[in-house]
């Protein structure tokens, strides 16, 4: 599971404090140094770690932790609050258009989980809100992507609009949106193309699709297994497209997990969902407080 190493290290750092009768300033400094190293080793972004440690220190001295009855417990509580804040405080719901359809554009690097996450989200909306989702296959560079979206569509019983791989994705999106309106869909997912790396041609295509579709949500799908690169990717997509939310995938894998802690702080955009498996049910709303509890163990 994600975060195992981080949990162990944070617990180790704090248990050092628990063992002491009286905690000194130097003890606290040692603990903070260990927490800092644990976060860095878990792939949390350097600037984010610096700010995290500074905030915890400030709160600890403001609360006169060393004078209190149970310094270790107080530190745990401050670290917990700071983790929650760093990950966005509260769960952020999917954006919704006042009139149907709500358009959700899925973007991200190839293999991040865009197609799968579009299916999972459509499935969730259908099951929980009785919604009528609709999906548009706009990734024409990876022929298997269209087939994959169709298979998912059949599995969850959601219509998929496709025009093969020879039509310009901008036209696919225009026609797909018309078809979605005609079908009275209330949520439209655009499965846009990805690349192995961010490049200008891809960004231009995505910017054009954004202009055409005027999406209510630009959901960046990020693979949690990619570590530090995850934050760089998020910054790149955000600068160019102005993402509105993040879906973090593969948190069921053996990732160090620091990306989850950094993305919100680096981009200012909320993580809205987490993928925790390959099945259509394996998508959860992201709750910063629950994630913090999971990290602290
Ligand atoms: P795309 O290229 O961004 O559309 O990525 P895909 O949706 O094709 O996903 C790439 C691979 O990652 C597929 O094998 C998915 O089943 C897998 N995948 C996606 N999300 C998750 C997740 O949350 N957990 C796990 N274990 N695998 C995932």
Defining traits:
297 residues, 8 strands, binds guanosine-5'-diphosphate
Total number of β-strand segments?
8
Strand order of the largest sheet: 3-2-4-1-5-6-7-8
Task: Bin the helical content.
Answer: 40-55%
Pick out the low-confidence regions.
Answer: none
User: Pairing-aware structural class of the strands and helices?
Assistant: alpha/beta
H/E element order: HHHHEHEHEHEHEHEHEEH
Measured by DSSP, the beta-strand proportion falls in: 5-15%
The hetero molecules present are: guanosine-5'-diphosphate
Gyration radius (Cα, Å) is: 21 Å
| Anisotropy-based shape | elongated
Largest sheet features: 8 strands, mixed
Determine the N-to-C terminus distance: 12 Å
Q: How much is the average pLDDT? A: 93
Number of helices: 11
Written description of the protein model:
With 297 residues, the chain is an alpha/beta fold. Helices cover 53% and strands 13% of the residues. It is built from eleven helices and eight strands. It has helices spanning 4-18, 25-41, 46-62, 71-86, 114-129, 143-156, 169-182, 200-213, 228-241, 258-267, 288-296, and strands at residues 102-107, 133-138, 160-161, 187-192, 217-223, 245-249, 271-275, 283-285. Strand 7 and strand 8 (283-285) form a beta hairpin. Bound molecules: guanosine-5'-diphosphate. Guanosine-5'-diphosphate binds at residues 108, 110-116, 148, 194, 221, 249-250, 252-253, 275-278, 282.
